[in-house]
Model the fold of this input.
Amino acid sequence: MSRGFLGRLIDVFGANKTSWVGLVLFAAICVVALLAPWIAGSDPLEQSIIDKLQPPSATHWFGTDEFGRDVYARLVWGARISLIVSISAITIALVVGGTIGLVSGYIGGRFDMLVMQAMDVLLSFPALILGLIIVALLGPSLHNLVIAISLTALAPFARIARAPTLIVKERQFVEAGRALGYSHARIVFVHVLPNILAEILVMASLWMATAVRVEASLSFIGLGVRPPTPTWGGMIRDGFENILDAPWLSIYPGLAILTLIFSLNMLGDGLRDATDPKLRGE
Done:
């Protein structure tokens, strides 16, 4: 990203206050996840049958679940799972999918057509359905969840990287690099990539929200991280059995998911406004 992009980003965030809201909320959730061992207050796996289904109180801020586990502690530790899965999956999709789209767009021709047809096959599956199929085949675990979600995001990143590559590769500085005898690898990763990186990062922020939703959905249906590891989707599923007697079991993790997705969408809107010349009035 160039200094000009950072300057536009600051200007857009200054004009669009919701972008700052998204940035602050996302940063706060990241801090909570990092400081979980110190701010959780108790072991999220510690059971106390005597204290089961306790309503929110000074002792248990968000109440306890059917095993007497502190909901607040599980919520704080669950933030780690959501962030680890979403950030890891989108990083893999960004690197692999972005590289596929970058190389495919630069080479062009029949190779580009075959690669994009393969990406179209992946795009034909809804993200949740494709993730469900992959996790069902590999088995529920943290690593398999990351692999499944990264594969669902692979094709969109390849597409978003390919489109600007087709334009940038025809510019004069790329032609000058070829004339000077630069290797194709140097042209692609040193000269083309920096000019399309901003658009890929915008895509990453928006797809992180999708990754959070897919992770929560898979955990809700029992295909996420194995219990008793706390996950927000798993907490909502567990709370459904006592939704009338203890609604806080599902309400608090649901609000956590809503807040994280909202913050990522607002952050992505700010990044999009900073990179889209039409929205900047250029």
Notes: The chain has one domain: 3-30+83-275. The chain has eleven helices and no strands. Residues 138 and 144 are 6 Å apart (CA to CA).
